[in-house]
Amino acid sequence: MAEHRLLFSKTGRARYISHLDLMRTFQRAFFRADIPIKHTEGFNPHAFVSIALPLSVGFSSECEILEFGLLDGVGEEDVPARLNAALPEGITIHKCYKAERPIKHLTHLNYIITFTYEMGAPFGVENAMKQLLSRESVVVRKKSKKAKAGFTEVDLIPLIKSWNVEGRRDTLVIDVVLAAQNPGLNPELIRAAFCEEFPEFAPDFVSFHRKKALDAEGELFL
Fold it and tell me: Best label site of 100, 112, 130, 207, fewest CB within 10 Å?
């Protein structure tokens, strides 16, 4: 397990930075901020950083976790301000702290899914989503490089711990807590299942925001 972690947000235009580019961004930021961290060994060493449960491109988040090894010379309380001065707009460090719990204890993620309708939310869309999420089983196809057919089937319902649906004037907001890993559930599959089942309620735009990282007891994972 890494010695230290960062809690950070990824919002605005930074949502479109890929995972690999985000890793490079942090490596450069540590260097620019003159924060000494552990590096890989070999002929071409680079800063060792690892992001737990990487976010899909286009998703925003306020609870991302980066693991790294902080060396002597900078106190963890000084890391957020120094890194924020070196990071691009949309990536904000909230906290630097010692890693005391294994990542496997991060069992659930809270997402806010927002369906936006340019002409106003259609009548019946809220009930349709509630109907879908109340079913005993919702099986969808998921792309898989390991499966011979190129996809595998997954039942969404056992991977949804809780949900709340609220219809507003121009939007439908779905607040869900999903399994994070082994296996985890990408909230995009909820959108896909809904649009397949109720194509007449397909949104004009959809956004996904990761709000909280939780443990098995529903407490914040830190």
Answer: 100
